[in-house]
Amino acid sequence: MLKSLLDSLFGREKQRDRLFLGVFTDEDHVLDATKACRKAGFNFYDVFSPYAVHGLDRAMGLPFSKITYVTFLCGLMGTCIGFFGMGYVSWWDWPVNIGGKEPFPFSAFVPVMFELTVLIGGLCTMLGLFAFCRLFPGKKPRLFHPRVTDDRFVIAIEIDEDFDDARCREIFTTNHAEEMKEVAPDYDALSEGGAA
Amino acid sequence: MSAPVIDEPEKFAFPPLLKMASLGVFLLGMVVFGLSFIGGADLAFGGWAIASWYVLGFPLFAMFFLCINHLSNAGWHVTMKRVPEAWTRWFPVGLVTILIVTASFLWHDNQLYEWVHPHDHGDLHSELIAHKQPWMNPQFFYIRMAIYFVLWIAFAWMIVGQSRKQDVDGDVKHTLRGKALSAPFGIVFGLSVTFASMDYIMSVEPAWFSTMYGVYHFAGIIESGFAMLILVLLLLRRLGYYKTAVNENHFHNLGIWLLAAATFWAYIWFCQFMLIWYSNIPEETGHFLARWNTPWFWVTFIVNPVLNWALVFLLLLPRPNKRNTKVLAIAAVFALLGRFVDIWQFVSPRPHANAEGVPVPHYMPWETFWQVFIVVGMIGGFLFVTLWALEKAPLLAKKDPYFDESVHHHL
Fold this sequence. Notes:
The complex is a heterodimer.
Chain A: H1 2-10, E1 19-24, H2 27-40, E2 44-48, H3 56-60, H4 67-92, H5 106-132, E3 153-158, H6 165-174, E4 179-183
Antiparallel strand pairs in A: 1-3, 1-4, 2-3
Chain B: H1 16-35, H2 41-71, H3 82-87, H4 90-102, H5 124-131, H6 138-169, H7 173-200, H8 213-238, H9 248-279, H10 282-292, H11 296-316, H12 319-323, H13 325-347, E1 351-353, E2 359-361, H14 365-368, H15 371-390, H16 403-407
Antiparallel strand pairs in B: 1-2
């Protein structure tokens, strides 16, 4: 149910086409192969790596992350909750006189507003990231190579009308691909019993 | 990774037009300083104290920048490091500018540094100043000044000297020695900036104190320093230098630093005010009372945080803006104006008690805003000295072990 809710919010996960996989052993090779694939006009399903590879997002041509808007708006929401919450409890609902300060002690609200900005902004960034990546409790892992979380990199290209099998094999081979194969859309290396 | 191809001038040649312009701006500042004696030595030396402390922040920032990058093993700054290295040559000139501030000690009716010629009015204020005499007296003031400048000049000479020696032999040991010198300088920097800011600026209100003063000025120095570094690098690029060696990735990093420094400044600015507002101790609140119930409110509580923080923060928050040199330059100008407002609102309102014993400021904003022209003149002198110093060494430290990393810096 959670998955269908996320799908309706952030768009359905792409699962239409058969995929063509290239497995690489080196960060520089996968980066070069990604650039070459983008130049050749192939559509990426995704590129998988065990760690963040610098410049990979740009090599794939991914758009600028929208997570910053989530952070900014939720941070702003935190500021407002801090301001109106403090205003309500210490001025509107029951005016509190602390040390003879003015009736609406804005200066005393600022630390609370600041902390709530950071707290709510930070938590919502994390939750927003999970939503964008469709990570939720009970999600089944799906790996394209048993060692893609360890020391292998996988480029998954969608086999659609733009796909040119020979050209793709050529790009992967010149960039030292360790392995190449065509797989079904719901392929999972773990369920196929790949040795880990 | 291929070897970096840098096809650009390796030596900086100070264009004669710029030389004349910076010298001209400096002389105009001197004229404003001279004319300001018409309003009284008090106003003139006040403006000079603002300007000398403002510009002394740049070489202090340069030393901080070089040392923090040494200590954190950073390499991205190496292509541009000649600029902060040249800035450290301002220290001897800065010593002269501070000595000119102390010329105000000769005026017996001068109110800038009240503790130099304390008058006993038989009130608590006079008693407090008398109590602080062991620290606040001209002799000890000069001794402390000598200590700060000897330490600053000595460390600048040693750390920049290692970088110069590396230009000759390319030995990695100079980087390691620079790093070994940076660690003790971190301690020296923290203590000397704290005490120097108390000596030169906080002591214009000798009865007042703030325990956050040192870190407050540290934040201001770092923010204005990054703003100035961005503007000087853009000027050098416009003159045809650093075309590829200092690119949008380096400016992005400087933009991140400026954003962080502005936010840190705002944090400290608010902390200083809030601690004093909350504890409400008469000794401390006089400073803010003279700025709260008077027209200075608009300067201290509106213009100051808006220029130093709000505008810089909102301009530099989106990533593309930090890579856009035009937006970055606008934010840097706001930060530099903000630094003037920040020091100005410390020095010029100098509160004194009125007949009812309520603190009121000596001068109003419209009586003293022209002191900004003395600061502009001093910046002209600073550019003249440091660009002249920049000619003395190659612009690119090609034998630095981090040079390649810096050329390929990528964000």
